[in-house]
Amino acid sequence: xxxxxxxGTVKPAPAGLTGFDVNGPLSHAQAASFKNAGYxxxxxxxxxxxxxxxxxxxxxEALGIVQADLALMAVQHVAxxxxxxxxxxxxxxxxxxxxxxxxxxGLPAGVNIWLDLEExxxxxxAADVIAYCQAWYTAVHNAGYVPxxxxxxxxxxxxxxxxxxxxxxxxxxxxxxxxxxxxxxxxLQKTQKAVNGFEIDPDVxxxxxxGGTALWLSL
Length: 219
Fold this sequence. Notes:
This protein is of the alpha/beta class. It has a single domain, classed as Glycosidases (TIM Barrel). About 25% of the residues lie in helices and about 25% in strands. It contains 5 helices and 11 strands. Strands 2-3-4-5-6-7-8-10 form an 8-stranded mixed beta barrel. The longest helix has 19 residues, at about 85-105. The protein is globular and about 45 Å long. The two termini are about 25 Å apart.
């Protein structure tokens, strides 16, 4: 079935705007209530596999979010804590994220899709994390999207490795995430709170140390 083209264009995110990420679908009315409460953008989830699509972003939901004048980006669900990153898994998950974003959601090329990097097994070698991230980056980039990385707790990589060993130019910091050397972050996540009946993580945009910004779909 054909999906409805999403309105808006891909734009750099202005600094100093507050948005949120949420692990649950939003109706148009719910998205509008967040807009009326002062939120400027929303980050919603993409699945890792075809067996895990329930509750993730759809074309209809994305349409309602953007029509409510919330800017939109997407992040892919991470596996359970203790997962094992590999290059092959990075290619698999990155390819599915890009295909789902294109064919199920209808996100346009050029928007940020975020890798969620947190809590692989504590014994994971840094080289395996790097290989996973690089393979994921390549799959998403080759599909026309701009890969970003959400850096959470237990990411394994050092501040310098996060910057110098990865191809990403867009970083989003979890409320409990480490620093990224040189570049720093474009989105800062705050601690979870309840708003409009949802448990959300508030997020604030900024320009990173090299002048980079997040890239989102907005009217």
